[in-house]
Structures are given as C-alpha cells and as structure tokens.
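Data availability (excerpt). The following record was deposited with the supplementary files.
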Amino acid sequence: MTEGAPPHRLRRLSDEEIALWTEVARSVSRRRGAILPAPAKPVQPKPAAPPAPPAIPEAKPAKFRAPPLAPLERRLKRDLARGRGAIDDALDLHGMTQAEAHQALRGFLRRAQSRGARLVIVVTGKGGPLGGLDRWDDERGVLKRLTPHWLRDPDLRPIVLGFEEAGRAHGGSGALYVRLRRAH
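Predicted structure:
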C-alpha cells in the first residue's frame, strides 16, 4: 500500500445480496463453525407481473439451419487406405486462383451430387515453395487452408456430409476426401 492511501474498507452487503448468498449457500455443505449473515430486514419477493394476454405469434421466416458435418466412418477410411474404397470423382485445384478454385469446387460438388456420387476427392496441393521467394511464405498453401472453410460454408452443407484429409495413397495432406449427401 502506498502512503497516504486510505485503507480499503469492505462495504456491507445489501439485503438482496445476502438473500441471494443464502440461497447459494444452501446448495453446499457448511463448513464447521460457519455462520450465514442475517439480512437486516426480511426481503419480500417481488410481486409477479400480471399475466400478459396470449400473444398471436408472428409469422417469422424459418431460419435455415445447415445440417451438421459428420466425420468419415472408420471402416471407410480403412478401406480407402487399403485401396478398396470407391472414389466416385476427383477435382484437382492445382494452378487455380482462389476465386477460380472456389467456383470450381462449388460446381464440381453440385454436379457430383446430382450424378449420385457419394465420395469424391479434392486435390488442393500441399503448397510447395514459390520459386524461393521467402517473402511469400505466408501465402503458401492458400487453397489447402481455404478449402476446408469453403466445405463448411452453409451454402454447401446440403451437399457436403463430411470431409477429412486423404490417405497417403491419395495425396495425404494435399487432398481431402469429401462425403456427399444424397440428392433430394
């Protein structure tokens, strides 16, 4: 404490605070010898508001909830790793700009779903060096980083059931297995 500073004083709890603390303290076992403070005056419960007339619900537009993503099943991942799983189609995003890759991915997934595909692979690449330009290192692997975000977008959720990094035989961290929902 610095010199000249007034000593710290504890304030008295209000009756409402004491009543609230008493309710909380009842939910735990007491410590031996502990005494609960008593309120100076009994706290009266607040009068309940008169019941409101039943409101007519307004017609609100139904809020679209994107279906949740599901991980690939363990058996499917094992079969894919052993070369037994059937990949229905593939998309290679190498050499595309972000905008081109995003449009290509959206179109590819829609077409694959309409054809009845259940599992596709999307090759993003691993984001190798860009001609030795160290100043661009933070821009390496842009499509690899963005593709999972695009697959989680609400507009693709009716198409994408789930996705995971591909096995080593299919490109490893430079590719994604994408499970598609059945077309309605």
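Summary of structural features: The domain at 74-180 is CATH 3.30.1370.110 (Ribosomal Protein S8; Chain: A, domain 1).
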